[in-house]
Amino acid sequence: RPLDINIELPDEQAAQKIKIGLYFATWWSLNVVFNIYNKKVLNAFPYPWLTSTLSLACGSLMMLISWATRIADAPKTDFEFWKTLFPVAVAHTIGHVAATVSMSKVAVSFTHIIKSGEPAFSVLVSKFLLGETFPLPVYLSLLPIIGGCALSAFTELNFNMTGFMGAMISNLAFVFRNIFSKKGMNGKSVSGMNYYACLSMLSLLILTPFAIAVEGPQMWAAGWQNALAQIGPNFVWWVVAQSIFYHLYNQVSYMSLDQISPLTFSIGNTMKRISVIVSSIIIFHTPVQPINALGAAIAILGTFLYSQGTRLSYVYKYALCKAVRGSG
Ligand code: 3PG
């Protein structure tokens, strides 16, 4: 994947910036809508394993219809592609279901505050499992990320251990998903949109038996009746909305990953969390103590410092390469 350094003409640069801006705005808006409907559904129907399965099923169906009707070209894949995709799908499934379990137990804002700590997991996994090293500013940025998340967790009014652990497991799983998908998407012949479609389908196959084992049709039937009685027919539309928006926001995020570096992507992801945290606090009237908000702000500031530290190391390596090449 190219470094995040532009060598385009000013007009091309401006057009590219507008395009990326539009991708980001669409990605964040779809994500905010998903998070709101997802929480509304989970409040009335606390079966996160089924709702996670439905969102993958809905995305898979949407893409199968798009391919069948030629709205989108179906990808040409082989056994090797699906083999490489398998570990990505396992990590995606775990990350998705863990985040949904978390959101069924705690406020959406709390799940996303903990999820803003994902860069810390990325650095720790890369260092201790892959032996990668980072410049000092990157390590220092972990202090506000971890400290801010910890402050938020300790001062959260409606703290719940399952909710906290779900967000932490989701962070870890998504770090592995990113590591595995780098391998799968490098030099790929499949577009970001189709890559995510295949990922949804494989994740659906992996998740379905576990969802049946953990929750199962009996619980779902009783819960569904209960939710319908409480909310009325609108409940069905909420489920449809959370499923469609889940697929759309992920699809747009994978489409934008086609256009930008992983670093720009991770900055976009942090900005996305700010919009989700703020909008969900407003919509669900989540009680927030000033100290709790301070923790979230410190953690998010930490993720910005992390991205700046990583950018610095790219620029340094780029300058070093140029100097070495220049000197012969
Ligand atoms: C999910 O359900 O997969 C999570 O909400 C994903 O969270 P993220 O895409 O914001 O990391």
From TrEMBL:
GO terms for cellular component: chloroplast membrane. GO terms for molecular function: organophosphate ester transmembrane transporter activity; phosphoglycerate transmembrane transporter activity. It comes from the Eukaryota. The chain crosses the membrane at residues 49-68, 161-180, 192-214, 234-250, 262-284, 290-307. It is found in: Plastid, Chloroplast membrane. Residues 19-307 form the Sugar phosphate transporter domain. Keywords: Chloroplast, Membrane, Plastid, Transit peptide, Transmembrane, Transmembrane helix, Transport. This is Sugar phosphate transporter domain-containing protein. It comes from Dovyalis caffra. It is a multi-pass membrane protein.
